[in-house]
Amino acid sequence: MSDVTTALRAAGLRVTAPRRAVLGWLAGHPHSTVDEIGTGVRAELGAVSTQGVYDVLGACAAAGLIRRIELPGHPARFERRAGDNHHHVVCRSCGRTEDVDCVVGAAPCLTPDDAHGFLVDEAEVVFWGVCPGCRTTPRKEASP
């Protein structure tokens, strides 16, 4: 039995070809957009609607199998790494997104100065910068 099949069953979800394809795609392509996931799944299965991809992502996110990442100015991205409170670094130029592990030991990012009565269970930190590839590529100036 595959890792994907085991994960779906453990989450109480039916094992379907679209769910297996989406989770399989995300295992090798973290931080993918819905369009990227749809293209990858269609290459494997043939016809799968964009709504079908959204449905799978919604069910898998609700079950805790994937994480939805919403970065300002970018389309939502999805990844299989869920539930460990890691963060992300994003290139301002090309949008490349990589995982950044939280501080080892105590998680200071989970202790806000004033939680206003909230029980905080997750923090999201995004580091912005320019990736190595974009730093070595000369920028094209915008045309007037």
UniProtKB/TrEMBL annotation:
Major site of localization recorded for this protein: cytoplasm
Keywords for this protein: Cytoplasm, DNA-binding, Iron, Metal-binding, Repressor, Transcription, Transcription regulation, Zinc
Cellular localisation: Cytoplasm
Cofactor: how bound: Binds 1 zinc ion per subunit.
Cofactor(s) this protein cannot do without: Zn(2+)
Gene3D superfamilies: 3.30.1490.190, Winged helix-like DNA-binding domain superfamily/Winged helix DNA-binding domain
BP GO annotations: negative regulation of DNA-templated transcription; regulation of secondary metabolite biosynthetic process
InterPro entries the record matches: FUR, Fur_C, WH-like_DNA-bd_sf, WH_DNA-bd_sf
GO cellular component: cytoplasm
GO molecular function, one term: transcription cis-regulatory region binding
Binding site for Zn(2+): C91, C94, C131, C134
Family affiliation: Belongs to the Fur family.
Protein name: Transcriptional repressor
Organism from which the protein derives: Amycolatopsis eburnea
